[in-house]
Amino acid sequence: MAILVDESTKLVVQGLTGREGSFHGLRNKEYGTDLVAGVTPGKGGQDVEGVPVFDTVRGAVDDTGANTSMVFVPPPLAADAIYEAAEAGIATIICITEGIPAHDMLRLYNHLLGTGIRLIGPNCPGVLSPGKANVGIIPAHFFSEGGVGLVSRSGTLTYQIGNELAQLGVGNSTIVGIGGDPIVGSSFIDIIGQFEQDDQTELVVMVGEIGGDEEEKTADFISENVTKPVVAYIAGFTAPPGKRMGHAGAIISGSSGTAQAKADALEAKGVPVGRNPTEVAQIAAERMTAKAR
Amino acid sequence: MDLLEYQGKQIFAEHGVPVPEGKHAATPEEARAAAESLGFPVVVKAQVQTGGRGKAGGIKIAADADEAEAHAKAILGMEIRGLTVHELWIERASEIAAEYYAALVFDRGAKKPLVMLSSMGGMDVEEIAAKHPDAIARLHIDPLVGFLPFHGRRLAFESDIDSDVIRPTGDLLARLYDVFARRDSMLVEVNPLIVTDDRQVKALDAKVSIDDNALWRQPEVRDMRDLSAEDPQERMAKELGVTYVKLDGDIGILGNGAGLVMSTLDVVAQAGGKPANFLDVGGGARAEEIVTALEVLLSDPKVKAVLFNIFGGITRCDEVARGILQALDQIEVRVPIVVRLDGTNDEEGRGILAEANRSELHPAETMLQAADMVVEMAG
After folding, report:
1. Chain A nearest CA to B236, separation (Å)
2. In this structure, is the dihedral angle defined by the CA atoms of residues B292, B233, B264 and A228, taken in order, positive or negative?
């Protein structure tokens, strides 16, 4: 099963003719993702290594039946690109672009509320369902198919934990990078809710970091709505207040949002929190082995 | 990007938010001239990015030109919470009948702007929230609709402010919302929002923070950036395109990806070390980026050992290894560097470093091993 992307994904890449868009779009295609189209205004009719390029998302959807979009458009134009995908009837939009103004995301998020359109990102590494489809920049070769759903605010940290899981012989159903910005389209709760419904997923690993109160809310959600085991990791225990740690969202203001507060909230709801990436992978692997017995 | 008080007030004024009349000054002479043109009494206010200016003696009332000049002389060059005062805002003193609190924040949780108003201004909002939680009226705004007149009325009625200023306060909140939405603000805070003796509502302070990701469309704000107020190493890093945050330990840390670097700081701290910084080289593996990163990091004289933590995803470890060697040819490194390369092409990368046999490089295979090694080397 897996979530968000799989064999039924028909991918259109907005910004396919750009350097990053073509590199990663073609990489995703090579992995087996059904890349059906690209969109770059003014370049309709061209192709990128055989993938047709359209002027509009609407054109791409009409011609190819694309149902998923990956957005690789520069930050000033990215929100516009996401509105265009939504208007064209794309059900799953995955935005990789980093640096989109927060107010653009604020309006966009509220515009998409209630439409049923699933936005992942922005400023995220994308979504990978091993053995099925890869949409984004996640290096697929570390990951194998399996029962652990992995959801994270960060990129390389996800690869680190995924790799440690792989070394312990544990594979993944889907790896979802939700992004490190203050406002992202999908939250931990949205994704963990999907993992709960997914047949393939047996256990969930969530990778959070300082800032906001998303992890605390997720702890409540898990205790009330999730029957599958969840294991967590939180980065940023040593981060001082008021400093932005690379991710726009990773800043502690006031007393809330600290790594300790998040870890405490999760553990209070029965979610074990690993102290480092290695320990998280070990806890997850142990629980998977225990289940298999 | 955080604005100074006077910069925030300039933006307020452009959006019709009433502020007391004032002038900028960078020398005691300028302060004197500004005070004379404004009329007395005036307030001489230190312009630095921190709270607690009043308690530190950075805000003083002057009754005449000599006093204004003397206060300016005393405040300029003063250190407030580690920041040196280079600029002043000279403002016509206000007759204060009441002090309120107003703020617009970017509520990440609700994913909507949150407007707050309290009749208890003048103290820290944390203090108001702790002592009088019911005294802060709060309202989320739909960003697709914007701030409506009823929002202002409701906040004003619920916050129990004086009834004769409900209308002007609501109007002022609408204008603050305009600043918030049109200036890409992450925070707009006014503390205190005052009622003068002649019953006018004015912003006596301004704390405005603008989204760095939106500065390209806020050129006026971008030009307000005060480079001298930033940490010199953080500024250097920003100019060179890497993310650097200075901390106060002695172990230099660099890695790729914000989450991984944060995690590296934690692992080093767990091993008993004190990180000197956060440094994210991003996806960069090229020698120039590594040289830049090392230069920034080593410009901190406290650094006794360095941990270079790379997990190669798209980034290839063999390229990183070559980048590190090229960097070492270009700059002098006087401290040991623990290098942990894992992920894509990690074996090739480690092989390249082993072959080069540089005495300053110490390879580690895992993050935890690397942390233990670097802590031991920093002693």
Report:
1. 16
2. negative
Tell me the residues of chain A between 6 and 65 that have a Cβ less than 8 Å away from chain B: none
B61 contact partners, CB below 8 Å, separation of at least 6? B41, B42, B43, B44, B93
Question: CATH 1.10.8.60: does it fit domain B230-378?
Answer: no
Clarify whether B91 is annotated catalytic.
no
CATH 3.10.105.10 fits B96-222, yes or no: no
Q: Give me the residue spans of the domains in chain A.
A: 1-123, 143-293
Active-site residue identified among B6, B100, B101, B177: B101
- Closest to A183 (Cβ–Cβ): which among B108, B214, B245? B108
Nearest to B195 by CA among B123, B115, B94: B94
pLDDT tens-place string over residues A218-229 = 999 999 999 999
CATH code 2.115.10.20 for A143-293 = no
pLDDT, tens digit (0-9, with 9 covering 90-100), for B272-291: 999 999 998 876 557 778 88
Q: Decide: helix, strand or coil at residue A16.
A: coil
**Tokens 């690209």, located at residue:** A38
Q: What's the rounded Cα separation, in Å, for the pair B366 and B73?
A: 56
DSSP class of residue B41 equals: S
Max Cα-Cα span within chain A: 58
Rounded-to-integer distance, Cα B259 and Cα A155, Å = 7
CATH, domain range A1-123: 3.40.50.720
pTM of the predicted model as reported, rounded to 2 decimal places: 0.92
Q: What is the pLDDT of residue B285?
A: 59
Place A244 in a pLDDT band, splitting at 50, 70 and 90: low
Contact B323, B285 (CB under 8 A): yes
3-state secondary structure of A71: strand
A22-46 burial, b for 16+ CB within 10 Å, e for fewer?
Answer: bebbbbbbebebbbbbbbbeeeeee
Catalytic residue among B189, B244, B289, B319: B189
Nearest CA in chain B to A163: B343
Q: Rounded to a whole number, what is the distance in Å from the CA of A63 to chain B's nearest CA?
A: 32
Options 3.30.70.1890, 3.30.1490.20, 3.40.367.20, 3.10.129.10; CATH of B21-92 = 3.30.1490.20
Query: What is the ipTM for the molecules in this complex?
Result: 0.89
Residues of chain A with C-beta less than 8 angstroms from the C-beta of B111: 106, 109-110, 183
Q: Of the candidates A101, A110, A238, which has its C-beta nearest B275's C-beta? A: A238
10 Å Cβ neighbour count for B269?
Answer: 17
